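<amino_acid_chain>
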Amino acid sequence: RQLCIELTETCPILNFSTVRNNLLKLQNIGVKIALDDCGAGQASLHMIRDMPLDIIKIDGKFIKDLHRGSTDEIFVRALRDIARKMGLTIVAEMVEREDTMQKLRTLGIDYVQGYAIGRPEPIGS
C-alpha cells in the first residue's frame, strides 16, 4: 500500500498484454500504478484506457505556463475530466509557482509536485 510504480508514457512497451497482466497482479496486492509524463507521448489515451492505473501525472509541459492563462489549461481540464470519469487520482508535475498551484487547486487537481512544494532531497535528510 506504500509502493507506487510509475510507467513513463514515453517508454515503449513491447509486450503490452504481459505488462498489463503483471501490473494487474501488483495492483491486486496493493501496489499503486501511476502513468508518468501523461500527455508527453503519443500513447496517453491508449494507456489511460487499457492499463490498470490508479494515478495519472500530467506532464510539466502542460503545467509550467498555466499561470499565464495559456491554452495548456484546455489540456489540463481534458485530462482531469478523463481521469475523474475513470476514478483516477491526478497529479500535476513541475509546479514551480504558488499561482500555478492555486490555479491547479481551482481546477480540482488532487496533488502537485515541484519546487513550489519543495526541492528534492536525499533520503534521510
Observations:
- The chain has a mean pLDDT of 90.
- The radius of gyration is 15 Å.
